[in-house]
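so my prof wants the structure for this chain in the tokens format not the other one, which i didnt know existed until like an hour ago. anyway here's the sequence
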Amino acid sequence: MTPKEAGKINRYLSKLSGISLPSKIFIDNLHYPYFEFSEYYSLPTSSSLDGMDFNSSMEYIQEISRFIPELISNSFILPEPKPKKETGKIFLVRQLSKIGNQSFIWVLTLEATYLGGAEKSNILQPARQGRTTSIRTNRIYFKSFAIPVESILRERDEIRGFDPYEIRELLTDIASGNQPDSRIKPYSELFDEADYSEQEKTILNIYSINSDNWKPGNVYKPLGMDYLSLSVRFLEKSFSDIESIWSRIGNSIWINQEKGSIPSSNNENFIELHEYLRQIDFRSDQSPSGNLRWEIYKKI
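here's what i got, hopefully its the right format
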């Protein structure tokens, strides 16, 4: 979509208010998180070739705005998906508070096209030439995370894009016991799919995240890699809750990145991070279609 079209959606987002509807948070068998509500909404059709254009994006945002206004209000939609191949997704962003001189951005990725598996009674419009299926659903699939950035592109006080602070070489050097001497080359919008499981395992080891402080284990990783950068992941449906968590754990996460060294497992810098992680638990469940899923909840 054009920057002008993105501006229209941003103006809509800036006017949103209200409380997010009650929901449960699940992780599906592909380890993808989603909110599940008691009420349903219409997932609109979109171009099967070009993905979410302005009309499809606006329709989707309007549909879900009643469900998660606290999460999406005052955010900015990126005119182009990031990376560009993710045409079926919507990307909303907001800036988080700095840690020292380092800037951070929060990214909410919304899966806005039909993923399959809907009951026949919930199909509103079957796929046809050039258009995806439209369904009635009570799920919002999402990814919510914060990353450090080199820069944030703004136009007319709206965020249009960002350049992530990348750590791929940093992780490679840390894992081998070497100190990094430079950052990697700029992130490619069209980089190929890659498996970062080993790097994410290194990240969890660096921050001493294990079964003692993180019960969901490999069901969902609270820290990882997104945009080739250190990613702090969230499962909240309110941006104010995310800000609160960030103010609590941000320093725990970033302090050792500036030092570029591996902290000891009993490092006191991680106390707040580990206490936050211990609040989160999970239980196995089964979706209506019979697939394994996990419900994520906070301990009282």
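also thought this was worth mentioning. The mean pLDDT is 86.
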